[in-house]
Amino acid sequence: MNDAERRRQELLEQTRALYNDRRTIPAVHPRYANAYHYLYGKSQEDINEDTKGGTFGIRLFLCALMFAAFLTVDKQKQEVFHMSSSDIANEITKDMDIQEIWKSL
Domain-by-domain residue ranges, the chain? Predict the structure, then answer.
């Protein structure tokens, strides 16, 4: 291989490296992201970003658990901390003035 061929090969490799889309994933709709990652794998950056998860799942589970407890209390006509289910519902729907709360603090 002479100098011209070697130079062309280097330029080709530099161009491929410059325009290589394997560094980042292309714009993928969230619905199809799992299928894309299954087919093409994940880069280390994507794996690191996935481990920075939120708390949505935990919060959803806790809300479902509290709602199930509320339904149980309501159905069995029990009281929790001397409050019935109607008292709890009234406290939730109570209109509160934020300014007065801040003033009292």
Answer: 1-52, 54-104
